Amino acid sequence: MLTVVGRLGLLMVMAFSLSGCQTPFWMNQKKAPAPAPAPVVQKPQVTTKEQQVVKMLILNGEYTLSQDQLLTPKNDNAYDYFRAALKLDPNNQRAKGGLQGIVMRYVDLARQAAARGNYSQATTMLNNARIVDPSNLLIKEVSSALTEQIKAAPPVEPYRGGANDFLLDASLLGKDDPRILAKLAEIANKLKASNSLAIIIARTDVEGRWIYQKMRDAVPGYRVRGDIKLGSPARVQLTPAAH
User: Fold this and answer.
1) CB–CB of 114/143 below 8 Å?
2) Which of 147, 62, 132, 228 has its CA nearest to residue 237?
3) In this structure, are strands 165-167 and 226-230 parallel, antiparallel, or unpaired?
4) Which of 1, 89, 217, 232 is most exposed, with the fewest beta carbons within 10 Å of its own?
């Protein structure tokens, strides 16, 4: 006599045999795939007002650096922008890199001036670099090389200018000092009266553009014509206009 369990087993074997040895339908059923995990939604980073200010200061610093507005004009130069950014964020590497960029630019300008034999301008550029980073080793290295170059150079006669040459006080350039503004106004009025061209000799392109703009401001409505050249000492030469 088969027990109930035995009869159930026998029936299952018979059903399996009658189905052509096919796997029973209940054995073919696959498990439903596990549901995909819900996507992780990252919360947008919140930028504080202070971070926005730092970013804007750095952008202004990088732009003025590209324009050679390194220490001047006042309140719109790379040095002031990067320092202001570091006051708010002392560890900001981008601002620190900006200050080093100013140093590198001044060193480059010093080397260019020394190559032209303009040692006064080269020294000025290195002194400006020291304002940004007094302990920079590259400044010391270039300064030592410049000292040796000056010692080996023959003495140079001081520039005395000519009848139509107007020397400018380099220490006042880039500043709204009444003395330099009056001098440039005088030159601009002579330029207008003689209908001449102005050849502006300046230490940097930014400095030359500043001189040009102040001369234009001194004679409203008159188009100041001329050119800007790099050199030293800073001066303006009046030359007859071609007819």
Assistant:
1) no
2) 228
3) unpaired
4) 1
Instruction: Quickly count: other Cβ atoms within 10 Å of residue 77's Cβ.
Output: 23
Report the pLDDT value the prediction gives residue 8, as an integer from 0 to 100: 47
Report which DSSP code applies to 232.
S
pLDDT band with cut points at 50, 70 and 90 for residue 45? low
Q: What average pLDDT does range 92-119 have in this prediction?
A: 94
For the record, the structure tokens of 183 come out as 């001098």
Euclidean distance between CA atoms 94 and 176, whole angstroms: 31
In the predicted model, what is the mean pLDDT of the chain? 84
Which residue type does 4 have?
Answer: V
b vs e for 153-189, b when ≥16 Cβ sit within 10 Å of the residue's Cβ? eeeeeeeeeeeeebebebebbbeeeeebbebbeebbe
Question: Which element (helix H / strand E) includes 61?
Answer: helix 49-66
